[in-house]
């Protein structure tokens, strides 16, 4: 049996009479690249905050890396990595200082930080930029560095919230190569994106509409089930309330 690292059963988040997340259920497996899609306001950010141990659900059950979202939020935080398009690195610190700082925050031993930092800088080809302020780096390099820092402590799961926003297509492809490498090493990747071509790179995709999961399958099966030639078409049909094909 494949190991389940995220388990959700009827997970719900309610604000007054409004259901931001409405009884969603799904599992995510070790080493899987899991796409979590939805339009703005669909509820995906609220759900991600719960899974990252940053917010309590109203009802339902969920566990992340084997820890309960109600009772073990601090344990969840120690076993995950997180990267956001908006904030992941300190731009007024150098490349080296960012690595050291986040390595310490994640609880990596100082001797281990030094070894891993050297390896990371070599893999990214940042030897000449190691003492530059992160704010001076091109966006694509910032994002690749931010991802590397997010998995620096070798977490079981990394959550990526719109990680490639504003990045050129070539750099986006390189970024996804890094995602595949992490997944091949056993790290589960939970990613939100509004680029439908990137959805094709995921092992499975969940699509949220108005707080509910309206579809969950592989990209190929979703396109087949909705008689679509691309994930753009699938997403458009779901947004319009279309039903899956019987073919």
Automatic annotation (TrEMBL):
| Keyword field | ATP-binding, Nucleotide-binding
> One GO molecular function term?
ATP hydrolysis activity
* SUPFAM superfamilies according to UniProt: P-loop containing nucleoside triphosphate hydrolases
At the top level, the lineage of the source is Bacteria
Q: Which residues form the ABC transporter domain?
A: 6-235
Under the heading PANTHER family, the entry gives: ABC TRANSPORTER G FAMILY MEMBER 20 ISOFORM X1 (PTHR43038:SF3), ATP-BINDING CASSETTE, SUB-FAMILY H, MEMBER 1 (PTHR43038)
What name appears for this protein in its UniProt entry? Answer: ABC-2 type transport system ATP-binding protein
Organism of derivation: Albibacterium bauzanense
Q: What is the lineage of its organism?
A: Bacteria, Pseudomonadati, Bacteroidota, Sphingobacteriia, Sphingobacteriales
């Amino acid at each position: 049996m494949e190991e389940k690292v995220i388990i959700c059963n009827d997970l719900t988040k309610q604000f007054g009479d409004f259901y931001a997340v409405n009884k969603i259920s799904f599992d995510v497996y070790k080493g899987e690249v899991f796409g979590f899609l939805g339009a703005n306001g669909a509820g995906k950010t609220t759900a991600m905050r719960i899974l990252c141990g940053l917010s309590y659900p109203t009802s339902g059950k969920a566990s992340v890396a084997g820890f309960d979202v109600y009772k073990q939020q601090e344990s969840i935080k120690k076993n995950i990595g997180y990267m956001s398009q908006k904030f992941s690195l300190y731009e007024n610190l150098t490349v080296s200082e960012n690595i050291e700082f986040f390595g310490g925050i994640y609880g990596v031993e100082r001797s281990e930080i030094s070894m891993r930092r050297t390896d990371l800088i070599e893999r990214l080809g940042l030897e000449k930029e190691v003492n530059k302020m992160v704010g001076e780096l091109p966006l694509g390099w910032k994002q690749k560095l931010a991802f590397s820092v997010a998995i620096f402590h070798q977490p079981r799961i990394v959550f990526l919230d719109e990680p490639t926003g504003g990045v050129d297509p070539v750099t986006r492809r390189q970024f996804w190569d890094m995602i595949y490498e992490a997944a091949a090493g056993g790290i589960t990747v939970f990613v939100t994106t509004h680029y439908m071509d990137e959805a094709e790179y995921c092992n499975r995709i969940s699509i949220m509409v108005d707080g509910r999961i309206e579809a969950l399958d592989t990209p190929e099966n979703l396109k087949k089930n909705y008689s679509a030639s691309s994930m753009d078409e699938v997403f458009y049909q779901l947004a319009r309330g279309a039903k899956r094909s019987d073919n």
